[in-house]
Amino acid sequence: MSLPGSPSIGTRVRRRLDTLRHYHEIAEVGEIARRYFAMNAFDGVLTAIGVLVGGYLGGVDSPRAIFIVVLTTAVGMGVSGFYGSYLVERAERGRAMRELEESTLSSLRGSTIASASRYATIVIAFVDGASPFAAALIVMIPFAFTSVISMHTAYILAVAVGLVELFFLGAFLGAISRERLWLSGLRLVFAGAIALVISLLLGGGVG
Amino acid sequence: MSEVRRLVLDVLKPHQPTILVLADKLGDLDGIHGVDITLIEIDNKVENIKITLEGDDVDFQDVAEVVQDAGGSIHSIDKVSAGKRIIDEVETPQDAGASWLR
């Protein structure tokens, strides 16, 4: 409920979203966020596949154990992605703002462009942190069904889920660059397959 | 005190937000009937623009706030018209290049 004369909650939310959309355009967040999303989700999937291969060859037969290993790895990637990206974006955008202040001969503190810069730093850091975390966890979905499937089957399905994720990620990149989606998808699946084969060979060689 | 009816400003601003957004925000101010923004000069970081505002009561502080919020700085107030109606500058023989002398 709002006071008479003051804007309703719906209007305030709409205005806030319009402001954020405006910041999004000014700071060109879309392009940078897409890039970080694709790069880091790819990292997340390949890391998860690597851990799964290690777990399989190491004889880890507890779904809880393998889930904890991948989860803690995903958390590490997420925190590293978020914080690293936050510091880098903050530094780069701060430098760009100072250069702009030198050109305009005035302070940009409190301006729209300063707010847009802060918004961009947080959004990009969030994408950088969340994408490998989520991508790695999606690979683990088959392990939630080990009451009905064997661990061996769960490992294979998890790798398959990872490769499917890579395909959709590649298709996403293909949509951005307006290339054939299936070809872009296959490119990333190929990269994942190479990582898988190398991990199997190395792990099998050590064992 | 008489109201300002026309104001012309020389402003230096970053490219973002664009003059479309700036004109929109200035046009929303109370007392403003019309806004004109002309691009004078541009480089890779900033652009120099001329802002012309007309209305019943153009408040310079409100306009300055909007310009600052857009990251711009007002370099000079180039023209002011105030009073009950807008009058234009009158050409006199003392003006350099006056048409009278041609």
Number of strands of chain A: 0
Helix-strand string of chain A = HHHHHH
Separation, N- and C-terminal Cα atoms of chain A: 67 Å
Number of domains of chain B: 1
Helix content of chain B: 10-25%
Radius of gyration of chain A: 22 Å
The number of helical segments of chain A is 6
CATH topology of chain B: Alpha-Beta Plaits
Question: What's the CATH H-level superfamily name of chain B?
Answer: MTH889-like domain
Oligomer: heterodimer
Strand order within the widest beta sheet of chain B = 2-3-1-4
pLDDT < 50 stretches of chain B: none
How would you characterize this protein structure?
The complex is a heterodimer of chains A (207) and B (102). Chain A has helices at 9-26, 29-57, 63-104, 112-139, 151-177, 181-206. With 207 residues, chain A is mainly α. Chain A has one domain (24-202). Chain B is α+β, with helices and mostly antiparallel strands and 102 residues long. Chain B has helices spanning 19-27, 60-69; strands at 4-14, 32-42, 46-55, 73-82. Chain B has a 4-stranded antiparallel β-sheet, covered by helices on one side.
List the helices and strands and how they pair.
The complex is a heterodimer of chains A (207) and B (102).
Chain A: H1 9-26, H2 29-57, H3 63-104, H4 112-139, H5 151-177, H6 181-206
Helix pairs in contact in A: 1-4, 2-3, 2-4, 2-5, 2-6, 3-4, 4-5, 5-6
Chain B: E1 4-14, H1 19-27, E2 32-42, E3 46-55, H2 60-69, E4 73-82
Antiparallel strand pairs in B: 1-3, 1-4, 2-3
